[in-house]
Structure formats: structure tokens, C-alpha cells
Fold:
Amino acid sequence: MALGTDYPRQDCGIARSLELVGERWTLLILRDCFLGVRRFSDLQAHLDVSRAVLSSRLDALVAEGLLERVGDGHASYELTEDAIALWPVLLLLAQWGDQRTSPGRPRRTFHHVGCGILGRDGRCSTCDVAPHPRDVETRRGPGADPTLRSDPVSRALREPHRLLEPLVTA
Amino acid sequence: MALGTDYPRQDCGIARSLELVGERWTLLILRDCFLGVRRFSDLQAHLDVSRAVLSSRLDALVAEGLLERVGDGHASYELTEDAIALWPVLLLLAQWGDQRTSPGRPRRTFHHVGCGILGRDGRCSTCDVAPHPRDVETRRGPGADPTLRSDPVSRALREPHRLLEPLVTA
DNA sequence: TGGTTTGGTCTGTTCATCGAACCAAATGCA
DNA sequence: TGCATTTGGTTCGATGAACAGACCAAACCA
Structure:
């Protein structure tokens, strides 16, 4: 972890977290992994990020135990339990960002499978449970702009998709 | 907002959020504001950040409606409701970072005033309510290192303190 | 009113990211 | 099986962000 992203003089859990997930692109990489993206090229094409930065970020996430490389050769990247614990952060940032920039018209919605939509506290509006991400389905919301991107991941995410399930791109 | 921190090609609430709070130091500034720090020099001394960066971050937070300059001359910085909505993110990052780097010995704990300690879901372990930050008291935890810093803010935070209340530094 | 403190602003240096080029390794197919 | 293609990097120069120090304007207070 480079010195330019650390906070050695902050005795604080937030600083410890930001040292790992605070760098540019990292949380968006994790977002994509929650959405089921598994392959380097899919991540790269969906994020439009330089391959050098993506490679460096993935290495760090693997080294710190947030991602796991599965399989030899063209590996698949999967979230660990530690990373999955960050889901509420991502959900809240998604909702907060949508509320500020597209009030009442979220770009993406999240649903407790077979139940209700998730509210601001991450709980199902129907049963009040805060479901595990694997029991969450994500859908394109009314505020989404389907014309902005057409990479394979963006196209696949036009359909509802269960979090943590591998996203199949053509 | 500079181009190097934006994600114009991401149609995503998380990207919108990160465009505002994803820059280095921003979330720590907001953390300090939750802890009741109000003045430029206290922020600067507690964060050990260059004054140019702090000034730039504060300007952006004010411009985007997350902070409010109160008073003329030597202004005071106060969180807006929009910013206060980010409290669960900060709480979760604090807990996640502490759990990973100091398991069982958090550097800082948060308590529902007159009730119980807050758990991982931000709810009071006694009454199960997720209290508003103004009803939360923060205390130094068993994992804190009181020798790391001795700026006025760090010294003041050795005592329990209510979130959002102005932190008085000598 | 003058000295001190606070809150900036400016600038050269260092580090991170970007974008393109190059290449090694893996995959797929005839 | 060998070759073409794809995938997953690595390298490098240009650009932008952060840092550290110096300077200074504005505010405060005795």
C-alpha cells in the first residue's frame, strides 16, 4: 500500500478502511464484483479504467483478503466474506448518490428476492429483514440511462440479476 | 470537481457519491465534523493535512451542500442534513476497519445515549433502535492508542463526547 | 492600534492515474 | 498439434493530485 493513500497518523477504523478501499476505482471494482462480474476484461470494459490501475487494485484486494482468485490461468475474482461485509456501505452510497442526483428516480434498485424493495436502511420494505446480498436482486431503476454504455456488463445488467451470482456476458 | 476524481461514464449512484466524498481526506473531514470539530485549524491539526487540500475539500463540501459555513470571519463548519445521512457509512467503515485491524478491541465505540452500545448494523444493542447521530455518544475504545497524537482534538476526544455537539478544544 | 492568530493561497516536488504501446500467457479451433 | 486470437498483464511518458513549505490577507484581542 503506497504512502500516498495511507493515514499512518490516524488512530481510527475509518482510516484503516480507507487505506484499503479508499483509492480511486476500488469501491467500483467491489460494486462490480457484487454484481457478479468475475473477469478482468469485463471489469476493465465496464469501468473503462486503465489496465495498469485495475491490475494493481485487484492485486491489493487479493493480498488483503477481500478478493479471491479462483482457477488457474484466466482466473475468476470472487468476493470474500470480509468484502461481503461491506455491502451495506455500497448500498448506502448507491442510494445516497441516487437520491442527491436523481431524486425519486434511482438508477438501480435492490430487492429482497421474492419479497420487497430495500429501503434506505438496507431493510426489505415488506418484511423488514436486512437480507444477505445473495438474497438480493438488482434491477435497473427509472433513473438509469441505458444509452450511456453498451459494454457486455452494462448490457447484461439491463436484466434483473441476483447479487453475487456470476454475471454472464455474451 | 476535477476530472481526475469523476466517473462520468458510470451511470451509478455509488459513482455519484464517490465523486463528492471519494477524494483523499474527505470522509475523514466529515468524520471530524461528526465528532464536533468546527474550525479550520482544529481540522488541519487533527488530520495533519496540507492547508491547501483542506481548504479545497471544505470549499467543495460547502459548494455541494454537505457543510455549511456558519458565522463571518473565522467561520465554523457544520454538517447539513444531507451529510448527516452519511453517518451509517462512516459508522460501518469505522467498525469494519477496527474489526479487521484490531479484532475485539475497537479504537472507538459508539453508544446510544443512556442506553446501549451500537452494533454492526448501527442499532442499539439494548433497544434495537438505530439512533440519530445526535443521540450517539462516542468513546475511546480499548484498541485506541492515546500516545499517537496529542493535538487539541485528539486530547478532547479522550473523553466521551456526543456526536454533532461542538468539540471544545483548549 | 499593533501584535498575534487564523485561514487561506501559491509554488516546486513527489506520487498516482491515464492512455497507448508492447508482450507474455492462456484459450480456442482447424 | 500448431497457429491465430483473446486475455491479462507490464512498461512508459504525459498529466493531474497531494504534499510541504513559504508567504500573506483577514480576523481577533488586549
Remarks:
- Helices of chain B lie at 13-21, 26-34, 40-47, 51-63, 81-84, 87-101, 152-156.
